[in-house]
Amino acid sequence: MWLGFVIICLLVGVGVWFFSTRCKIQPKVLSRQDERLIRQIIRKSPNKDLAIKRIRCSFKLSMSQATYLYMNAQK
Question: What is the model's pTM?
Answer without folding.
Answer: 0.57
